[in-house]
Specification:
The protein is α/β, with parallel strands linked by helices. 42% of the residues lie in helices and 12% in strands. The protein binds nicotinamide-adenine-dinucleotide. Nicotinamide-adenine-dinucleotide binds next to helix 7 and strand 7.
C-alpha cells in the first residue's frame, strides 16, 4: 500500500533546476507543425503547467511558450537530467520490483545520445518516434517505476503517466497507449493539433513501447529482406547470398541506418544516400558503413570494384538520393535491388529532404516557410518517382520499404503510382517489402523480430544467451531457420550492439517460446542475470497496416485494425510485463495500429506459465488472421499448429474456385443489386 506517497514534479524537485546547456553536436529536432490559435496555445500551456507547481509558473510558462512557438511542441527542457542518460546495468536502478527497474533500463536506453535520433526532444527514431512527450513525464514515470509493487499497474497515455492502479501479480506492470484517436479525427491535421496541445504522442513502435534496442533491432529483418529479395527476384539459390549484387537505397537514420550493415552481412554491395552528414559520421564511426563517397560517380565506381571482386561493402553517398538515381539513369548504370528509407511517414515534417536544397537549408526552410518547403518536397518526390520509373523499366527490382514512400508520391499528386491509376484503395504499382517478401516468407509462418536485453549489462550474459538461442534452433527445418541460425552464430562477430546488451533474432512461435523458456531457466539457475524479452511491433501479429505489415492481406480486411488490438489485449490478459498499443508506427498517423510487449524473465515458474500461453498467442494470433485471409503459408502453419497444440485451435478457411466465381458474378451481376 502507498502511504502519503506523492508523485509530483514539486516533490521530485525541491528547487527549480537550472536551465540546462545543450551539448554541441547533438542532433536537434526541427520545428514541428504548429497551427494552434491563441486560445489553443493558451490551452497547451495550461496542459503543460499541470505538471508544474504554481509557485514556478511565472518562470516556466514563458519558457514553455517559447518552446511551443519556436519548436511547435513543449519539451520541458529545463527538467532534462543533466547527467548522462543511458541504459545502465539493472542493479544501478532504484525500485521495489525487478520490472520497475527493468523498464527504467529500457527507457534510458531509448534516450541515450548514442541511440536516440533527437535525444533532447525525446525522439528515439523514425524522425518523430518519441519515448514520451516531455521531461516532466520522464521524471514522473521513473518515480512510479521506482515505487511500483507487484500488485500494481502503471497506465501511460501518450507519454503521460495517468497513475498506478491496483491489479494482481499476473497483470501487466505497465500498459501504454500512444496517439490512439477517435476515427473521425484520426488524421494528420487533428493529430498535429493534439500533439501541439500536449495530449498526443507519436510512439512509432518501440520508441513509445520502450523496446528499442538501437539499429540492431532492424538489421536482422533488413538482412532477411535483402537476402530473400535476391533469391526471389534475382534468381539467387536458397542457400547463397548477395555476392556481386548491387543494392541502392537512402537513409542512414534510426532504422534505415541498418541497411549498410545488413547488405554487408548478406554479402552484397550497397550504396546508401544520406543528406545529413552527421548521420553518415555516426554510422561510419560505428562501423555500420565502411566507406563514404561525395559524388555519385565515386560511389558507383567504388561499388563496381567491389562487385567485380565479389566483396561486400556498404558505401554512404553524402547527398540526395534523387541526385544519385538521376546519375544512374543518365549513365545507364544497372542496379539489382532498389529501395528507399527516407522518413516519408513524416514527409512534410522533415522526414524527406527535397532535391535541390541541402540538409541545412531544409531545416531552415521548415521553420521559415512551410508552404515553400511542402512545394519542394512534392517536386523532389516527383523527380524521385520519374528516376525509379526509368530504372525499373531497365530491369531493376524496386520495393517500398514500409516508409510510406509510394503513398507520399501519390499524395504529392502522382496518381499513376496507384494500381488503379486513380486512388490508393487497390495499392500501388510497386510491391512493398512485406507484400512480396516478409509477408509470405516470414510473417505468414510466424517468423518475426523476437529480441532480448541482458539487463545485467554484462557482455558475458549476451554471449551465453546467443549460444543458448543458437542451440535451440533446428537449422534443417526450413531455409528461414538456417538463415536465423547463421545470423545468431555470427551475431557477435558482426558487432551489432549499440547501447544495452541486446540481441535480435527472427523466430517463429515455438522457436520464440523454446528460447524464452531456456532463458528463464538460465536466470533461475543463476547462469545469467534477469532478461527482458520483447519484439518489434513490426511483426506477424503486432501491426495492422495495409501499407506495410498487412499489405499481403487480400480479403479486404487490410483496412481493419483488429488483429493488433487482439494481440495486445491477449498479451495483457496473459500477463506480459508491459503491453503497448500505438497509432501510426513507421507509416504515419492513421495508417496503422501497432502493439508490442516486454516480458521480464525473473527465473520464476510464474513467468514460465505466462510465456507458455502468451508467447504462442502473440504470434499465432497474427498467423490465424493471415490464414483466414487465405494466405497459403499461414494456412499451412495453422494446420500444423492445430495438430501440435491440444489447447488451441485455429479456424481454417475453405478454398473456392476463382474461375467459377468470376463467371457466376459476371453472368448475374447487377450494379447496386436487385
Ligand atoms: N528498416 C526497416 O525495417 C523499416 C521498416 C519499416 C519502416 N521503415 C521506415 O523507414 C523510414 C526511415 O526510418 P528511420 O528510423 O531510419 O528514420 P530517420 O528519420 O531516422 O532516417 C531517415 C533518413 O533519411 C535521410 N533523408 C531524408 N531525405 C533524404 C533524401 N532525399 N536523400 C537522402 N537522405 C534523405 C534523413 O536525413 C534521415 O537520416 C521510416 O519511415 C520508417 O518507418 C523502416
Amino acid at each position: 500500500m502507498i502511504i502519503n506517497m506523492e508523485f509530483t514534479i514539486g516533490d521530485i524537485f525541491t528547487e527549480l533546476p537550472e536551465y540546462p546547456e545543450f551539448k554541441k553536436g547533438i542532433r536537434r529536432a526541427p520545428k514541428r507543425e504548429f497551427t494552434l490559435t491563441k486560445e489553443e496555445t493558451q490551452l497547451a500551456l495550461k496542459n503543460a503547467l499541470r505538471y508544474i507547481p504554481s509557485k514556478w509558473h511565472e518562470i516556466i510558462a514563458p519558457e514553455f511558450l517559447e518552446e511551443l512557438l519556436s519548436l511547435g511542441r513543449i519539451y520541458g527542457y529545463r527538467f532534462r537530467p543533466t547527467t548522462r542518460i543511458y541504459g545502465k546495468g539493472i542493479d544501478e536502478y532504484q525500485g521495489k520490483i525487478l520490472e520497475g527497474k527493468a523498464f527504467q533500463v529500457m527507457i534510458d536506453n531509448n534516450l541515450d545520445f548514442d541511440i536516440s535520433l533527437y535525444p533532447y526532444e525525446l525522439v528515439t527514431y523514425g524522425e518523430t518516434g518519441r519515448v514520451m512527450q516531455n521531461w516532466m513525464q520522464y521524471h514522473l514515470i521513473k518515480k512510479y517505476l521506482e515505487e511500483m509493487n507487484d500488485h500494481q499497474t502503471l497506465v501511460i497515455m501518450s507519454g503521460h503517466p495517468l497513475g498506478l492502479f491496483k491489479s494482481h501479480k499476473t497483470s501487466p506492470r505497465v500498459m501504454i497507449t500512444n496517439g490512439l484517436m477517435i476515427g473521425q479525427f484520426n488524421d494528420l491535421e487533428n493529430w498535429n493539433r493534439a500533439a501541439a496541445l500536449g495530449v498526443a504522442s507519436y510512439g512509432q513502435m518501440t520508441a513509445g513501447g520502450w523496446m528499442y534496442i538501437g539499429p540492431q533491432g532492424i538489421v536482422h529483418g533488413t538482412y532477411s529482406t535483402l537476402l530473400n529479395a535476391g533469391r526471389s527476384k534475382l534468381g539467387i539459390p536458397e542457400k547463397e547470398d548477395l555476392r556481386g549484387k548491387l543494392f541502392v537505397t537512402s537513409g542512414l537514420g534510426g532504422m534505415s541506418g541498418a541497411q549498410g550493415k545488413a547488405v554487408e552481412i548478406s554479402g552484397g554491395v550497397g550504396i546508401i544516400a544520406e543528406v545529413d552528414e552527421s548521420r553518415i559520421q555516426t554510422r561510419y564511426s560505428q562501423g555500420w558503413v565502411s566507406a563514404i563517397s561525395n559524388t555519385p560517380k565515386e560511389a558507383f565506381d567504388m561499388a563496381h570494384k567491389y562487385m567485380k571482386n565479389k566483396q561486400p561493402i556498404a558505401i554512404a553517398f553524402n547527398g540526395n538520393v534523387v541526385d544519385l538515381l538521376e546519375y544512374a539513369v543518365a549513365e545507364d548504370i544497372h542496379i539489382d535491388l532498389l529501395s528507399d528509407q527516407t522518413s516519408c511517414h513524416a514527409v512534410y515534417d522533415g522526414g524527406y529532404c527535397p532535391a535541390g536544397i541541402s540538409f541545412e537549408e531544409r531545416t531552415k526552410l521548415l521553420k521559415s516557410n512551410k508552404t515553400e518547403f511542402k512545394k519542394l518536397v512534392d517536386q523532389g518526390l516527383k523527380r524521385h518517382y520519374e528516376a525509379i520509373k526509368i530504372i525499373t523499366s531497365r530491369g531493376t527490382y524496386f520495393f517500398d520499404y514500409g516508409n510510406s514512400f509510394m503513398k507520399a508520391i501519390y499524395d504529392a499528386g502522382v496518381s499513376e503510382i496507384c494500381k488503379n491509376k486513380t486512388n490508393d484503395l487497390d495499392g500501388f504499382i510497386w510491391p512493398s517489402y512485406v507484400d512480396d517478401i516478409m509477408g509470405p516468407i516470414l510473417f505468414d509462418y510466424g517468423y518475426g523480430p523476437f529480441r532480448w536485453v541482458c539487463l545485467s549489462g554484462l557482455d558475458s550474459d549476451l554471449d551465453k544467451t546467443d549460444l543458448a538461442a543458437m542451440n535451440c534452433i533446428d537449422k534443417d527445418r526450413r531455409f528461414q531457420d538456417l538463415d536465423n541460425y547463421n545470423w545468431i552464430k555470427d551475431a557477435k562477430k558482426n558487432k551489432l550492439v549499440v547501447g544495452t546488451k541486446a540481441r535480435i533474432l527472427y523466430q517463429a512461435a515455438y522457436g520464440r517460446l523454446k528460447i524464452a523458456l531456456k532463458f528463464n531457466e538460465m536466470v533461475r539457475d543463476g547462469i545469467v542475470g534477469p532478461i527482458m524479452l520483447g519484439r518489434d511491433h513490426h511483426d506477424t501479429g503486432g501491426t495492422d497496416s495495409p501499407f506495410r505489415e498487412t499489405s499481403n492481406i487480400k480479403d479486404g480486411s487490410n483496412v481493419m485494425a483488429e488483429m493488433a488490438t487482439h494481440v495486445a489485449l491477449g498479451n495483457a490478459s496473459r500477463g506480459m510485463s508491459l503491453v503497448a498499443l500505438h497509432n501510426g508506427g513507421g507509416v504515419g498517423i492513421s495508417k496503422s495500429l501497432n502493439g508490442g510487449y516486454g516480458m521480464v524473465l525473473d527465473g520464476s515458474k510464474r513467468v514460465d506459465e505466462i510465456l507458455e500461453s502468451a508467447m504462442i498467442f502473440d504470434v499465432m494470433g497474427g498467423v490465424s488472421r493471415r490464414a483466414w485471409a487465405t494466405n497459403n503459408n499461414a494456412v499451412e502453419t495453422s494446420k500444423e499448429f492445430n495438430h501440435m497444440d491440444n489447447n488451441s485451435h485455429i479456424t481454417i478457411p475453405y478454398d473456392s474456385s476463382e474461375e467459377y466465381l468470376k463467371k457466376l458474378v459476371s453472368d448475374n451481376y447487377i450494379k447496386g443489386g436487385k
